[in-house]
């Protein structure tokens, strides 16, 4: 971001003395001027604070691939409570392909916070979201819960997929599938394929089973259905006894009345 604005005092002086020139260049698509106009409207330099106008200049075509502009757009979206859009903007950062969606969000978000501190601006990002992302960064113990809460807030494909991945790692396959569905993630996703393979394996164990038993699918238990006579007989007997007791109680009550 320092390539566009390194000092607020200089930007204020530049805006006061060359405001019309900056605006004209920004309207023509000059990247530096678009960024400066975005900051001017974002901070209210010689003009009222206006997120809409700030977003207009920062989302100019000349800055479409610029990670700094996208981080500022993420900051504006977060201020407006649009966390899904904010996270998408934050994620557009220079990072490794191995980094997860939320890892990239954290990097982009930390970058904008550091930038605000360097400019000596007393601007803090949402504390609740910061806490969730901190929990996520701690590792497995807190990551799953943080992913689920973030997915519930954003309710979009990337965050739901992140929640599904975390749940899959804990072997909670049913919940993982539910979050994939919530995020409208296609059935060609690798998690679907992996879970389907495990389920098919469990089905085969069920079909090959000669006696009634519990087949465990890594904490998701299934009951085999072959030769269940003895089991069903005991269940039927218990149900019959419960039914008789209920009828007896009902008859006694009716007699008292």
In words, what does this structure look like?
The chain is mainly alpha-helical. It has two domains: 1-125, Alpha Horseshoe (Serine Threonine Protein Phosphatase 5, Tetratricopeptide repeat); 129-226. Helices cover 69% and strands 3% of the residues. It is built from twelve helices and two strands, in the order αααααααααααββα. The protein has helices at residues 8-27, 31-43, 51-58, 67-79, 83-91, 101-118, 127-138, 140-154, 157-169, 173-182, 190-208, 229-256; strands spanning 214-217, 220-223. It has a two-stranded antiparallel sheet. Helix 4 (67-79) runs antiparallel to helix 5 (83-91) and helix 8 packs antiparallel against helix 9 (157-169). The longest helix is centred in the C-terminal third of the chain and has 28 residues, at 229-256. The chain is elongated. The protein starts with 7 loop residues before the first helix and ends with a helix. 29% of the residues are buried.
Summarize the topology.
Layout: H1 8-27, H2 31-43, H3 51-58, H4 67-79, H5 83-91, H6 101-118, H7 127-138, H8 140-154, H9 157-169, H10 173-182, H11 190-208, E1 214-217, E2 220-223, H12 229-256
Antiparallel strand pairs: 1-2
């Amino acid at each position: 971001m320092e390539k566009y604005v390194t000092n607020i005092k200089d930007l204020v002086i530049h805006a006061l003395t060359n405001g019309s020139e900056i605006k004209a260049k920004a309207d023509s698509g000059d990247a530096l001027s678009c960024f400066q106009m975005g900051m001017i409207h974002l901070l209210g330099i010689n003009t009222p604070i206006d997120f809409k106008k700030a977003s207009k200049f920062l989302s100019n075509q000349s800055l479409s691939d610029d990670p700094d502009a996208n981080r500022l757009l993420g900051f504006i979206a977060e201020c407006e409570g649009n966390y899904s859009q904010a996270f998408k903007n934050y994620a557009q950062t220079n990072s490794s392909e191995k980094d997860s969606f939320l890892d990239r969000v954290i990097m982009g978000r930390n970058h904008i916070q550091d930038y605000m501190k360097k400019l000596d601006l007393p601007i803090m990002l949402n504390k609740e979201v910061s806490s969730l992302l901190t929990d996520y960064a701690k590792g497995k113990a807190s990551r799953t819960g943080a992913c689920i809460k973030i997915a519930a807030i954003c309710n979009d494909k990337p965050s739901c997929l992140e929640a599904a991945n975390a749940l899959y790692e804990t072997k909670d396959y049913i919940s993982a599938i539910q979050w994939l569905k919530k995020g409208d993630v296609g059935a060609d996703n690798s998690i679907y394929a992996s879970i389907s393979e495990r389920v098919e394996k469990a089905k085969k164990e069920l079909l090959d089973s000669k006696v009634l038993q519990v087949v465990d699918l890594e904490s998701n238990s299934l009951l085999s259905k072959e030769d269940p006579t003895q089991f069903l007989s005991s269940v039927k007997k218990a149900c019959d006894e419960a039914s008789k007791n209920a009828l007896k109680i009902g008859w006694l009550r009716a007699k008292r009345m």
